Amino acid sequence: MIITQIKQRRKELDRDKNVYVPHMVLVDKIIEETPTVRTIHFHFKDPELNKEFTFEAGQFAELSIFGVGEATFCISSSPTRNDHWECGINRVGLVTAALHRLGVGAEIGFRGPYGNHFPLDIMAGKNLVFVGGGIGLAPLRSLIWNVLDNRDKYDKIAIIYGARSPGDLCFKYDLDTWEADQSLNTIITVDKGDAMWKGREGFVSEALRDAAPSSRNAVAVVCGPPVMIRSTFPVLEQLGFMPDQVITTLEKRMKCGIGKCGRCNIGNLYVCRDGPVFSYAQIKGFISDEY
Amino acid sequence: MEKELRDQAAKLLEEGTVDYIVGFASGTLKHTTTPLITGDKDETSSLVINPFISNNLATYALEISGRLGIVAKGCDSRSIVSLIQDKQITRQDIVILGIPCSGLIDLKKVEKLAGKERDEIDEVVVVADKVVITVGSEKQEVPAAAVLFDHCIGCELQIPQEYDFLIQGPAVEIRNSEASREKIKELKQMSPDQRWSYWKQQFNRCIRCYACRQVCPACFCERCFVEESQPRWVSPVSQWQDNLIFQAIRAIHVAGRCTDCGECERVCPVDIPLRSLSKEMYDLVGEMFNYKSGMNAGAPPLMTAYELTEVESLIR
Amino acid sequence: MITKKVSKKDIRKLLGTWNQECNVIVPSRVDGVVGMAAWDNQDISFLDWYRNTVIPPKSCFLPKSEVMMSFKKNENGYNLEVPTNEHWQVIFGVRPCDARANAIIDHVFAVTYDDYYYISKRRNTLLVGLSCTNPYDSCFCTSSNIDPTESEYVDLMFTDIGDDFVIEDFTGGGKALLNMSNTLKKVTKADIDKIKEVKAASVSKIKKTVDTENADRKLGSLFNDTDYWERISAKCISCGICTFLCPTCFCFDINDEMIRKQGARYRGWDSCSFRSYTRMPMENPREEKWRRVRQRVCHKFEFFPMNLGINACVGCGRCIRSCPVNWDITQVIAGLPAEAGIKSGK
Lengths: 291, 316, 346
Known about the structure:
heterotrimer, A: alpha/beta, C: 8-stranded mixed beta sheet, 12 helices, 22% strand
């Protein structure tokens, strides 16, 4: 039986290292991505932290507006570009609505980085298939830029991204860059286009099926709403991807972000601490289907 | 009574008239019962009727899909009727197995009289209008009224009015509406300051388990106002001010629906005297609108119906 | 080690000595509800009526609500202030079930990241256990391999042998507490015999038992049996009593409050019984009641054993005593089919 001897913590517990106390960050720039999604660019108020802070693609943070509360966001900028940091914010609740009311210069709280990260070591030397939907591009984008900044380490790269409508496509400036990049196979699709839309229509899973990237020596990374993830797994299986070749991030309601508060518990795991990045092989082995 | 109920329940399941029977079975602790929800006619043999059948089973009518046969005391039958009035359930889906009730035993009162906790008390038996409490070799006989729930003493419907089957049995007259308002009277005699500090102390220990809301058949909102964050009506943090506001708003929300079944107070794990709020509201509704909730399935519900002749232009 | 004893009439003196050095917390009954509260330096009547608390002692380290930090907005931004918990406290009267429970959640709050609020209070606390000689009919600690008169998770253990309490000390902190007092007496051979008697009698008073052996395996194979969980959960009303009163339930929520330019961040108990607990804007992985009931049972008896090698139910019986519908965890565990035919996992 492993029971922690709390008395041993006497020396180790440092009030200044209280993990719940956020660092202060300042908002530098706000980009309105869609009517409900905006990206905020920020840096730390403490100049030392600006130099020291590092993270890995796939990790997340707790952003807080004092007096409103905290919410969980993945860091959507690339770890290779540490001059500032970015988070994509979908307006769905109390804290995200408050984050949408912010202006440049606002001071907010930041705790993190938390969680595990995408396995770049496994992805090295492989063909990569990125499949994203809606705001799910935020964590994927961090990884994609990380990979593109070390382009020669990876083989063929396909990016398949979709949203409900052209107006819901996030990070359009990135999409334009990737589409123009001849070394990438970038496919953008929308569930339903509008009068101006000249691109592809249809679900992401269908675009993936049509693109039919080879599963040989490949890793697929899937991020998006659960309904998209659930429809994408079978297509990848048909394309010959084994469960351990498919990687995704899970989204759960979180409060603490560090495996204490309990709500992201799934089986014996905590998504915040043991995830949020999991392989499809791991997910298939979960005790619970509550993801 | 039990045999008649069991036979009737088994018959309803056997004939397929109902999908489930909701009644009471013996509990796992002394002097307790537990809701029995079953579609198996053999299990109806464990149905019981005794002075410990406290739960208001109408709550389950909101949740379980299918046709239900619900065992209902007078107060429960009123809650069912109230839910029908509010169109939360349909009369056709419910078979009411009415049972006469001579009042339920409040174990807190028994504990006080016996000076022992409930598991240390061997027996609590009702004999007509008396209750015999046995602890070891000691027997104590007290008037039933001394150990019945306050809301039982105030009962206005010991035999259900609305039912499909009425199990025959005695209903010993227990009504003493004065005594059932004893706590409220005490509160009213306090100065506003005293009353304020009284409630402050009570709500200070509220742990926000929401058992009061969850057992209440009148609390049928899909999403409770305390869970709303935009706007946030009440803070989710357990502080006495917000705990009090939660109960105050809840009392208003169930006005005209509350049948004074007393469940909110009984289930409170920290003994907050919630019935003092709900019963006062119940009596106010009676005084102001001459309305008794759950007495007439055909009547329009008090708070959600209006007429063109209403005085308030806001409603009209 | 059993070294000393203290006469019951000297307990006030003993607690008084400790109270000069640190805050003494004792069982207290307010409006009929028993919890742990600061001692008034006088009243020791709890020795006569105390069996166990309604609110578990976890509330001394994880209160139902507490301030995590207060904040004030000024022209330079926000100024954050974190409350300190540097005072020492002695909790007198912790039952062995709750002592084990504290040790279990200690792990949660110390693994990977130190939880400042919990640990800063916990590390400054000495636990004085009190043998359970009058358990409730809902107590089943022996089924969790707990002896109601023994604990390895307290600093001192007191056992009632009539006119005296025999004291066992387990830690340096416990010894220090004993050294502070001059009201202690030496134990005699007769006392040792007496304590053995009391211990045996106390164990035999626990009448409720349940076989928890292999509960984790059985639950694993039942996990996806929706019909089973729907049946088991039918009468549950989804209130938070069983989780809030459970000494090993530790889930919490974090919320902010702000009036004008001042406010605070609070944390308070939360419960997996609530539908809102896992609700996200677009979906809720535990919308159905049976999933929430399954979560509670499996977290205690399957997930905890997987991670810690111990089930997280200590058999204190609070969830049974206070349940509005008499939903009895021992019945559920006892009723687990011995050989379930369903395979585990998806």
